[in-house]
Amino acid sequence: MRHMPTLERLPASDTTISDDFGLSVIEGLSQTQKTLPCRYFYDARGSSLFEEITHLPEYYPTRTEIGILQTCASEIVEGFSGGDVLLEFGSGSSVKTEILLDRVSDRVVYVPLDVSEAALADAAARLVERYPALEIRPIVADFSKLVALPDEFSNSRITGFFPGSTIGNLAPKEAVGLLSNFRKVLGQGGRLIIGVDLKKDPRVLIRAYNDAAGVTADFNLNLLVRINRELGGTFDPEAFHHKALYNPRAGRIEMHLVTDRAQDIMACGRPFHFSPGESIHTENSYKYTVPEFRDLAEKAGWKASRVWTDANKQFSVHELI
Ligand code: AVJ
C-alpha cells in the first residue's frame, strides 16, 4: 500500500469558520422573500439524498454529463504533458474524475480540492489503489474563497475541472466572479473544463427537480430538519411542502419550501413569522444555452474553446482557455 498523500490546508479555507450557518439562517429568514443558502443542503443526510437524486430516472444531469465525459475524455486529455496538473474544484468523491484519470493517471498530478477533509481522505485512499502511478496532492479549501494555490504549482500548467453544473447555483454575475477567480488562480496557460446544464423544455426541468419518488422534496425539507437539530429550530417539516418551478425570465429552476398555514417558528433563539402560502426560496439552478454560457465565460476573461454535448442537447461540457 502506498502512503496516503499529505493534506495541504490553504489559509483561505480558514474563512469557512466564519461562514456561520446560524448567521445565514437569521439573515435569510429576515428577508421579505425568505431565503436559505443551498450550500447548507449537504449535511450527512443531505449528501446521501443528493447521491440518491443523481440516480433518479428524472434527474438527467449526472448520467448525461458522465456520458459526455466518457465520449470526449480522450479529446479533453490530449493536451496533457507529463507533470501537468488536473485540479478539481469541490472534488467530493472524485468519481467523474476517474473518467479522465483512466487516460492520464501516469502523466498528471491530481489536485482534488474540497472543504471536506473526510471526502478528500476517502477519495485519495481509493485513487492511490486504483492508479498506482498517480501523484495526488489534496487541498482542503473552499473553492469559492480561493486566493492562490500553493507555490509548488506556480510553474505548472493547470487544467481546472468543475463538473456537475455547480456553477448553476450562482446568479450569472456571481458566476462571472467565480470564473474570473478560477482564471486568476489557475494562472498562465490555465484551462477549465466545466459542466453546464442546458436550457430545455421546462417540463423536463421541473420533473428533474420534482421527482415522483419525492427524494428531491426530502432533500429540500432536510434543510429544516438541519436547522431544528443544529440551531434549536422549531420547524414542523410536515407543515411545509417542496415546490420546484421554472422561472423563464431568469432562466433558472427555483426550489422553495412552502407553508399553507400561518405559523410562528423559532430558530437561533429568534422568532420568525410565516403567512399562509409563504415560501422560503432554497435554491436556484440556472440553465444556459451554449452561446449564453460562452458569453458568460468570456465576460470572466476566458476564451471559449471546444464544447461537447449529448445527442439530445441536455447538458454541456465546455473547455475554456
Ligand atoms: C448540485 C447544484 C448541480 O442544481 O441540479 C439537485 C443540486 N438540487 N436537485 C442541481 C440539486 C435539487 C444540483 N447541483
UniProtKB/TrEMBL annotation:
Gene Ontology terms, MF aspect: methyltransferase activity
Gene3D superfamilies: Vaccinia Virus protein VP39
Pfam family, one: Methyltransf_33
GO biological process: methylation
Domain Histidine-specific methyltransferase SAM-dependent intervals: 24-319
Organism: Hyphomicrobium facile
This protein's UniProt keywords: Methyltransferase, Transferase
Transferase among keywords: yes
Family matches, as InterPro entries: EgtD, EgtD_Methyltrsf_superfamily, MeTrfase_dom, MeTrfase_EgtD-like, SAM-dependent_MTases_sf
Protein known as: Dimethylhistidine N-methyltransferase
